[in-house]
Each structure stands twice: as structure tokens, then as C-alpha cells.
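Document type: protein sequence-to-structure record

Subject area: structural biology

Format: plain text, a pair of labelled lines:
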Amino acid sequence: MSRLIEIRPDPKLDLALERYVDVPQEKVWAAWTRPEQLKQWFVPAPWTISECDVDLRPGGIFRSVMKSPEGQAFANLGCYLEVTENQRLIWTDLMGPGYRPLDKSIADEGCCGFMTAIVTLEAVGKGTKYTATCLHRSEESRKKHEDMGFQDGWGKCLEQMVALIQSGRV
């Protein structure tokens, strides 16, 4: 097994959500890595995910289309940087598939080009220590993400994921 590179978040630039969830690490991994699962929990309800593409390998695509309750669609495009089964998933919206830097006009739309996300899973008893960290390039970008509701949004998504797993649908 390879050793994971330690990533130290910078509190001025980064946001983090850390929780213990009472579901197995393997189920959390499955919920994060299967499009049919992601579509059921990855945005806070009543928002939905209408499309999701996952090519689970470094350089592979991670794309979703979020829909507001009013029907507005917001596409998110990124690429996986690290895939360590059941332990850590890292992706960024600064690049597209194949590590191709995204066109600046796409990044300027606001949904892309502002973060690298790290989801870390650690088995604790029958549950999982879940840590989601978002790295930003500037304090302004971090503040914007925080004002968008990072803590509440990512927290609600996690609750939805746990409920999905506990229902037996993962």
C-alpha cells in the first residue's frame, strides 16, 4: 500500500468539515464514487443532480450538473488527482479530464476553477471518520465559498449520504 501524502490545510485559505458517521467506510467510498449514488445525495435537497460522470482514476473526469428547484442548471467540471480506494479522494475544478487546464471563461462562470477538494475516510469502530477539505487559491475565494454555505451545504449532503447508506440503497 502506498503512503498518503500529508496535506495540511491553511485556515486562511481552506475550509474543512470533519464528522464521525455511523456507517462503514466502504459504503461511504461507494457513495462518493458511483454516479448513481452521487446523484442521490451530492447537493442539499431540494436541489438535485441531473447528470454525473465519474472516471475514477487520476486524470479522470468528475462532472456533475446541479439543478435548482426553479430548474436552473449549474455544471461542475473537474478531474481526479488522487484515488486511494476507501481512504482518500482528491479532485479539482481547476483542471478538466486528462489534467487539461480549464479555459478561463469556464472558470470565470463561478462554478469551476476555484477549489481542490479532499475527502478522507478512516475506519473508526463500525463507523467512519469523515473529513472533507476544500483548498482555495485566495482568502477571497475561501470567503466566497464559505458565504455560499460550505458548512451547512456539505454538512447537509453528508447527512443525506448517511441516510441513503442506512436505508440500504448503497
Summary: Residues 150-166 form the longest helix (17 residues). The helical segments are 25-33, 35-38, 104-107, 139-147, 150-166.
